[in-house]
Amino acid sequence: MRPTAHQRIALTACLDDHRALYNAALEERREAYRRSKVSIRYGDQSAQLKEIRADDPDQARWSFSSQQATLRRLDKAFRAFFGRVKAGRTPGFPRLKGRGWFDTVEWPKDGDGCRWNSQPEHPSATFVRLQGAGHVRVHRHRPVRGRVKTISVKREGSRWFVVLSCDDVPAEILPATGAVVGVDMGVASFLTTSDGEQVGNPRHLAASAGKPATAQRDLARKKRGSTRRRKAVARVAALHGKVRRQRLDGAHKAANALIRDYDMIVHEDLRITNMTKSPAPKPDGEGGFLPNRAAAKAGLNKSILDAGWGVFLTVLAHKAESAGRELIAVNPAGTSRTCARCGHCAKDDRLTQASFVCTACGHAAHADVNAAVNILRAGLALRQAAQAA
């Protein structure tokens, strides 16, 4: 988005007022349950919006539908919380949103408080109309396909973006190639295919680690609430935003290459959250703790997250669906220690990070290529079992 100075002020006020609504609704739920053991639902709070808008002119200037979407966002947070409780995971109760933790407002229907491409007769520019902010100019980096369903405005540092979700988007089915591939994810190499191709790990965060670290130290010296601190926060956010965009760009390029060349892609069903957990402390029985290699694990966790496996797999799934490709996720357990030729599985078969030599049949290969072949074989077995059923 390319808002004017007055529109920036209006968009910032829109975020602040929706954040205030979110926090007030959260506090109402907490107090009602604490005092009376009463659970308040989305329908109860949505019914109060008319009174809130009548009493508060700041809230009345924004779209009614966008405020309903904010209340639904809170309701979704509570449903996710109770879902985690039932599943036995760490709950994480919904929290009040600070100034830097609420950066998105959604309009759930195009034409209700918002309008995409509100001036289609303009010869060269695109505009989105937002209630309370007016016609905001947009730099449209690619054509919008399908029918615009929802419109969201997102703030990232000092930049503003409009995010569209569309229905009836035509699929771009690619011609069949007849090829299948297994993909092994790693840290030394970002991905390795069963055909022997490797994509290097760019390590975007590590490559630019000096600048974010310097900016973070500079931020730590600033007084809270000061103008200099706000500028330092924006600087840190801009640097991490650049790394995030680089990582996303690399994920799109790697996914495009696989989608273009293969009809079926088999990858590991990675549990990244579990893989990046910190090791549990080990009490020594005397009030202290035994060494648990937490520092080494922290470095590995940072490398895993920097590689961006989760981003890549999400992008790959979206592109595969659009292109009509088949995507299969398999359990990665044992794939890196199993011989792709004879099936012998032993820890000693993998001598180093890159070398695999089977102690049973003598088969030697790159360890990641060997794992990718096993992943492909497991995916073919799953597909065959599904077809037989």
From TrEMBL:
Nucleotidyltransferase listed as a keyword: no
TM helices/strands, residue ranges: none
Positions of the Probable transposase IS891/IS1136/IS1341 domain: 175-277
Disordered: region residues: 196-227
Keyword list, A-Z: DNA recombination, DNA-binding, Endonuclease, Hydrolase, Metal-binding, Nuclease, Transposition, Zinc
A GO molecular function held by the record: endonuclease activity
Keyword presence, DNA-binding: yes
Residue stretches making up the Cas12f1-like TNB domain: 309-375
Record domain Transposase putative helix-turn-helix: where: 2-36
Top-level taxon of origin: Bacteria
InterPro entries: Cas12f1-like_TNB, RNA-guided_DNA_endo/Transpos, Transposase, Transposase_put_HTH
Family: In the C-terminal section; belongs to the transposase 35 family. In the N-terminal section; belongs to the transposase 2 family.
Cited PANTHER family: RNA-GUIDED DNA ENDONUCLEASE INSQ-RELATED (PTHR30405:SF25), TRANSPOSASE (PTHR30405)
UniProt-recorded name of the protein: RNA-guided endonuclease InsQ/TnpB family protein
Annotated source species: Nonomuraea salmonea
